[in-house]
Structure formats: structure tokens, C-alpha cells
Amino acid sequence: MVVQAETQSLIHGARLCRTAPRVSHLLFADDCIIFGRANLREIMVVKDILQTYEGAFGQKVSFEKSAIFFSKGIPEEERLLLAAQLGVPCVAKHGNYLGIPSIVGRSKIEIFQLLVDRTRKKAKDWKRRFLSGAGKLVLIKSVLHSIPTYLMSVFALPSQICQRLNSLAANFFWGQKDEERRIHWNRWSKLCRPKGSGGLGFRDLRLFNQSLLAKQVWRILLNPETILARSLKARYFPRTYILLASNAHNPSFIWNSLLVGRELLLEGIAWKVPEVWKETKLTDFILDNPLSWDLDGLAEFLEPGDLWKLTSQIVPSSNCPDSPFWPDGKFNSYTVKSGYHLACSLSQRSEASSSNQDESLWHWIWGLEVLPKIKLFMWKCLAGAIPTSQALLSRSINIDPLCRRCGNDIETLEHALRDCPWASFIWEVSPLRLSPTPANGQCSIAAWFEIIRQIPHGEIHKSFANLAWAIWHARNLLVFQDKEISHFDCLSASQRVIWHRLVSAPKAAPPPVAVECRRDHQVKIFCDASVVEGVGVGIGVVVKNKDGLVLCCCYGFSHGVFTVLEGEAKAVHAGLQLCKDRNFDDAIAVTDSQLLYWRLVNGELDLSYLGDTLAGIRLLAAELRFCAFTWTPREGNANADCLAKLAKSSRSDFIFSDVLPNLGNLSSLS
Question: Half-sphere exposure of 384 toward its Cβ, with a 13 Å CA cutoff?
């Protein structure tokens, strides 16, 4: 009814500028906003629409919970008159719509302070509970960091708000309960690094905010016909793309936020024809009869390497859109995860090495089959976050630096866990029978952990981590509760630390899948590829009938630059082309690439070079009477695999045959 009234010019929606499309309403479930001109005629039209809706559906509109908001140019007397006619209160400031502020004023910090308040309340409720460090880590990632996500996908939060949110998360993680100060043993920026780089994988909210906003720019770029895209284009970039839009006069806060996301998008976006897309289209370089690339035209714009990469792909159809793609994203489309990873890598380019430790040592810690709290303890040992007497003294804490047990040496982490006579004896009598101190007696904790990591036995690694935690736990009982436990009790405690979390068993390799034909005349097309990086791909195709007899085959080498997935797709394309040429119109295409199989059956749009090959595969499949795709392990695709290796080895042009060549010694080719 609203659309019909707008079509008949009974109401007029709002618009960003004169050339922008009008928006008459926003509807989501029972949350509705209707836009119109501030005059009695349109107010009565809206009232009539609402009354008609009530009579037709039996749902009464709650005018008491509704409100009307006017722009600045409407006099106060006229506002009150129009509000009385509609029967709703007049408000000076509209609230939120779907949880997002409808109007953002000058004070951005005041608007987004609600995120800080919600996060503080949530963390305050948790502080009353006894949570391990590992439990806090999970709650921060799954709850605290999810609170601002919705608003961050629309607005660029002020840096002060991000700092306050980070501060709340850091205080909660390091154990602050009320307003007391606690030592933060590592910078928050270090905790935001990936686990494999010495961090804990917390989100950097500023960079995450940017990656969310880049997603909105990506959607506008790929969907220019949406109302949002058309409105923004009319206001900010009427003659170009959003990626080339310049600064506008008096821009809105949302537009400024999108520009923040655009900065990240420009760092990672890729184009099939670099620098050409601004003035021409990819399809301008495709010749008809036969379908082929315009090599002379492309050579004017592309470097030899880029030209080879492009022209080695399947020639797309003439209606194939010339779209950008995101090389690191799923289906070569932008994802927030890939954008965040790019933002983090760009942020760390100018920094020094993220850690003094080898990344393999960090991966080893997080891969241990022990309780999460013990993994976190091991991380703290390497990150220098264990509150030994020496560490506290270095933080200007007035404390006796000597070991509480032996009283002979300063309590360093090495001393507390290994060199103290009490701890040394436990290592000697433990089932591990590990030498507690290397021969030089000066081994650091990191070097000690590395020595243990080199032992090729997973059970020793697990027992080592459990016993190290038990020794530190016994030390804490002595220091904070004045409770002395024996060596035997400490060993028993390490044995009682059991892996409670369910760990999925390693997945066994799936058995070969028998691909059965459903009809007598149906054929199976086995396809495989063997890539030579930077040179080309060897392709092998074998067509078999219902009984498994070879009907025909082909193999050959295609020069160009291909990834493994692109090579596998090119093999399927060659198989379907062979099937079409031999007039087999009922086929099942078989590949041993699970990723390619999911790409084919999923149907998601892929914007990269691979997408052109996938589109070509689907076009060939549509020309057959029936075509399906399936997956089989490599063992079930042995013939095609051998042909692909033969093509890779011989570098020959495509050879077609009704019988398989001698494949006796080809299974060992690489």
C-alpha cells in the first residue's frame, strides 16, 4: 500500500540528494519507518494506510508506542498540528532503529558510550565468579568482543571507544574485580596477535571495525543496483566507482565510516585486467568466431607475466561480468576474516618481530593435549607473564625476592619450576626421568621447552606440561595459603590433571568411493591434474562405461600459471569437452579434489580466474542431457592421475585415444 501510494504521488519519500532514489519506508518485522513530506495531505494518506491495514489483517497499530520526527525547517506549531492529526507523540530526537542510532550528532563518544556500559556490566557480572584464565579467554572472545560487532558493521567507532572496550577486556583478563589495579603482564596489542605468533588471538577492535566496514564497501561495489548503492552513488560518486570516490562536501558519518573500510579494501582487492577496468571491460578483449583472447589488445595494458596468467585461463562467455575479486577470501570473495587478517598484517609491517620465540614453539604449546588452563600457563611461561618474586620486584613491588622454599636463590621462573632443589627432585623421580637442568646450568625456559619439544613422544610432552603446572600450583599454595605439600602429592596432582574436554579422534582416510552409473548408457568421466608451478598443468581424463571399461581418454599439457585448484578445474572442463565431442550426453564427472567438488555443487559465485573456469564447466554441463559431479579419493582416480603425471612429464600437446596407454611405471611419477 505504501508503494502504491508512492507510485500515485500521494506520498513522497526521503532522498539523499535530487538525483538519488526516494525511500518511502523501511520495514523489518513489526519495526517500521515511513518517510513523507510534512503536510496534512500526506499525513492523512499515511493514517488511511494504517487504518486499512488494521481492517484487513486485524492487527492494531499501537500509536502510543509510535512517534513522529520532523526536520529542522518545520515550525513548532505545524509539528504539533500534524502529530495530533496522526495521533502520535512528537519527538525532538528519534531513537534507534534495529539497534542502530537513527541520528548521530557531533558527539560520537556520547552515542557509542552505551557499548562501553554494556561491556562493563557484562564483565562486572562475571567478576563475581571463579573463572580460570582460559575461561576468561573464551568469554572475552565469544561475548565481550561480540557486543560491539553489530554497530561496528555500520559505523567507524571513535578510537577512544575502542580503547575503553580494550581496557575493559584487558582488566577482566588480568583479574581486576572492582576498581583495584592489577598488573598487566603483556601489552594488549601483543595479546591480539595470533596464537602462533605469541599472542592469544584477541581481536584488535579498531582493525576488526575496519574489516567489517570493508565488507559493506564490497557489497556496494558488487551490487550497484541496491537502493543503498544508488543513493550513495548519487550523493558521493555520481560519475565513477566507489573505490575512486573523492572526498565530498559535508559528508555523513556513515560515508566517512565507509571510507575507512575502503582503505583496507584497496590494499587487497585484485582485478583480472589491472588498471584496465577503469576505462574498459574485460569482455572488450574477447574475440568471437572462434571464442578467443585479443592478445594484441591485452598486450598494450599487461605485463608479460600478467598476460600469460590471464590468457592461460578458460575464455569467459561474453556476458561474464568483469568483477573484482579478493584472492584470500572464500570463493575469492571478500570475507571479514580475510580482511581482518590483512589489516593485522599491514599493521605489523612496520613493527619489529612479533616474538623472540620460534613460532613452532607457540604452535607446540597450543597443540598440547592438556587442559586449556595448562596451555595458558605454558603460554604465560614463554610470554613472561608468570608473577615470580623477581618479576614482581622488577615491577616495583616491595617483596622478598628469595625463593620461599629454599631461601637460597632469587625466585626466577627457571628456579621455581626447575632449579629449586624441591622442584629438581620432583623432575628426577617423576616417570619422565627428565634431567631437570641441562649441562650448562644456564638454560632459559624457552630453551628448556624447546628441548622437550624435540623429544618425539606426545605423551612426554603432555606429562611435562602437567607436571610443570603442578609444581607452580604447589608453589602458590605455599606462598598464598602457607600450605606445604609433599613431592608425592605434587606428582599425584599432575597425574590427576585429566583431559576433560572431548577431543575428536583423528579422522581416518575415507575409503574409496564406488561411483556407480544409474543407467546403462551413462558414463563416468575421471579427471585429474598435476601442476608445475609457474609453467603449466598436466591434465588426464578417462571416460568409462557402466561396467568400468575405458571408452576413451585424453591427456596433455596446458601452459600457463595455475594454482592446484585451477588445474583440477581445467581437467574437469577438458573432460566435459571430451564427453561432448564424443556425443556422451549422460555423464558423471569425477574429481579427487574435495574443494573443487564443493565449489561445483555449492553454486557460489567465484569472482577470480577460477570462477571463469567454473562458469565454463557449468555451461558445458548444461549442454548435456544429464550431468552430475562427485568426489572420489585419489585411489579411486588412479588412471586419470597417471595420465596427468604422464602429461606433466612429457609436456606434450593433447593426445586423444580409445585405449589407455601403458601406465605400468607412471604411478611413481611426481
Answer: 14
Burial 139-150 (b: 16+ CB within 10 A, else e): bbeeebbebbee
The predicted pLDDT at position 440 comes to 41
Q: What are the residues whose beta carbons fall under 8 Å from the beta carbon of 467, sequence distance 6 or more?
A: 426, 427, 430, 432, 491, 494
C-alpha distances in angstroms, 602 versus 32, 570, 613?
35, 18, 15
| Percent over 90 (pLDDT), the chain | 33
90 DSSP assignment? B
Closest among 72, 80, 73, 88 to 34, alpha carbons compared: 88
The answer for residues whose C-beta is within 8 angstroms of residue 628's C-beta and 6 or more apart is 587, 588, 589
E strand or H helix at 171, and its extent?
Answer: helix 159-173
**Is the bond into 290 cis (omega within 30 degrees of 0)?**
yes
Q: Which DSSP category does 317 fall into?
A: P
Whole-angstrom CA distances from 144 to 170, 180, 423 are: 11, 21, 39
The grid cell for 262 is 575502503
pLDDT at 543 over 90: yes
Indicate the range of 70-84, 189-203, 269-283 predicted with least confidence: 269-283
Sign of CA dihedral 249, 254, 257, 262: negative
Cell readout for 104 is 548521530
Sole residue written with cell 600457563: 377
What number is the average pLDDT over the span 406-411? 90
Burial (CB count within 10 angstroms: exposed 0-12, middle 13-18, buried 19+), residue 125:
exposed
Q: Please, which pLDDT band fits residue 82 given cuts at 50, 70 and 90?
A: confident
Local structure of 474: helix, strand or coil: helix
Q: What whole-number distance in Å separates Cα of residue 645 and Cα of residue 532?
A: 10
Cα(98)–Cα(102) distance, integer angstroms: 9
**Phi, psi at residue 306, to the nearest 5°?**
-65, -40
Q: How far is the first Cα of the chain from the last one, in angstroms, to the nearest whole number?
A: 67
* Cα 43 to Cα 49: distance, rounded to the nearest angstrom: 10
Mean pLDDT of 373-393: 93
Domains belonging to the chain, first-starting first, are 2-101 (no CATH), 108-203 (no CATH), 274-323 (no CATH), 359-496 (no CATH), 523-657 (3.30.420.10)
What's the Cα-to-Cα distance from 235 to each of 22, 25, 101, 473, rounded to whole Å? 13, 19, 21, 63
pLDDT band at 503 (very low <50, low <70, confident <90, very high): very low
Alpha helices, DSSP H, located in 603-654: 609-623, 638-650
Report angle CA 310, 316, 317 to the nearest 5 degrees: 155
- The pLDDT of residue 666: 52
Q: What is the chain's Cα-based Rg? A: 33
Q: Dmax over Cα atoms in the chain, in whole Å?
A: 95
Contacts 24+ apart (CB under 8 A), 96-100: 97/26, 97/31, 97/33, 98/28, 98/31, 99/150, 99/151, 100/150, 100/151, 100/154
223 half-sphere exposure, CB direction, 13 A CA radius: 12
* 350 Cα distance to chain centroid: 23
Consecutive H or E run containing 544: strand 536-544
Extract the C-alpha cell encoding 90: 512528537
Q: Which three cell numbers stand for residue 32?
A: 517500521
pLDDT digits (tens, 9 = 90+) for 13-30: 888 888 888 888 888 767
